[in-house]
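Limitations

Structures in this collection are predictions, not experimental determinations, and the ligand pose is part of the prediction. Treat each record accordingly. The example that follows, with 5-phosphoarabinonic acid as the small molecule, is included so readers can see exactly what is and is not provided: the inputs are given verbatim, and the output is the predicted complex.
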Amino acid sequence: MKQERRKPIRVDFNNMRAEFIGKEGISARELNKVKPAALAAAEAYNAGRGNGMMGWTELPYNQDETVKDILKTAKEISEKFDNFVVLGIGGSALGPFAVFNALCHLRHNDLSKRRRNNAPRFFVEDNVDPERMSALLDVIDVKKTAFNVITKSGSTSETMSQYLIISDILKKKVGEKWNEHIIATTDSENGNLIKLARENNFKTFFIPSGVGGRFSELCPVGLLPAAVLGIDVYALLDGAKYTDGSAREAGGDIFKNAALMSAATQYIAIKKGKNISVMMPYADSLKYMADWYCQLWGESLGKENDLDGNKVYAGQTPVKALGVTDQHSQVQLYTEGPFDKVVTIIGVEKYRKTFKIANGCEEYPNVNFLCGHTLNELITNERIATEYALAKAQRLNRTIIMPSVNAYTVGQLIMFFQIETAYLGAMLNIDAFNQPGVEEGKNATYALFGRKGYEAKKAEIESAPKKSRRFII
Ligand code: PA5
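Predicted complex:
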């Protein structure tokens, strides 16, 4: 890869500072006060590497053989199939979709196969809306489609119901070789999917232990779809390696470790009542990175109890926004509404395309001033203007600067947010890697379906107060 594509992402924290935005901002004193907690979080990250649920820290280093298998399989898939469909939800879907949008043509599925560099069309089905399933089947020919069933637990109702529907259709339409259309990505030992994979001889990839759903984009969950799409998976992993290596080396020095400065400033912001974290990329390609971030941030940090069993109700509500689109929607609230947010802007220094604004409208100076400039200048100036407007209104904001959007910088970005999340989890003294709140909803669904073993949960649901018809109007 060319040297210029190997540039590091940077984070500008100036608009988080009291010196810049006034009393709502973070003072030097506040920053100094959290330094010991930040240092402890960095030490915990370095010491915990690879242990327990921190297996994701090792993914840039320990997947040589897996990546070879992924690349070989991806080539076969591209040659054989016109469509590649991910069946999964949450951490088993958001990463693949975010990386697809970041690194493929923004209208990938509308291009001819040649213009897609022979990659199949790509779909991520992360819902069980019957209309959506029906719509998918209207636009794909299952005989020309590979389905990547992704579920770590191998038992998630949404994914398994999709599996049941698709495998039934494949058996009817493809016959004996239906199993060649399914690739299972799951735990190597636990769950139903691995049993089905063995029974039916599906090609399988494994989600390593210690890699939770929302931390799994850099294992086969994300790498296989990326490789099928022709994305440079080595560059993705190298980007992640760079960020992890820098964080590890810089350790507890918040002025050298951007992920730690991020966690420390978010920690202070939360204590100052900033309970909302807005993620606002100024690039359509990164729109779904904001969705991925929302799950990572929300599910990891939203916790009732701390590690000592105290009720803490921790967390910061993630909100996605898109620059410049949401300047005409949400930014009014961000600049004049409650002082309860930190806005993270993602700026891109060099977009992959340059688009000139054509000359014209000479008699209309209010329009003509745009002529001769580029959309690149417009989107960049609007970003800078939003940063300025937020700062002027004393709203905390920081900017992540991506030199350009490519596999290397996207790998960095993914790792950056994962490390920031781990650091902040440690500073908040919570378990950032479990999701008991999600489990409760899953169990209630099983109970509503009368699944064996969930009788007590069903009784609990049935004993809840009945809804009043008066309030259904
Ligand atoms: O981050 C998580 O652990 C969750 O969001 C899971 O990814 C999601 O619930 C899907 O689980 P599974 O991959 O087991 O089907």
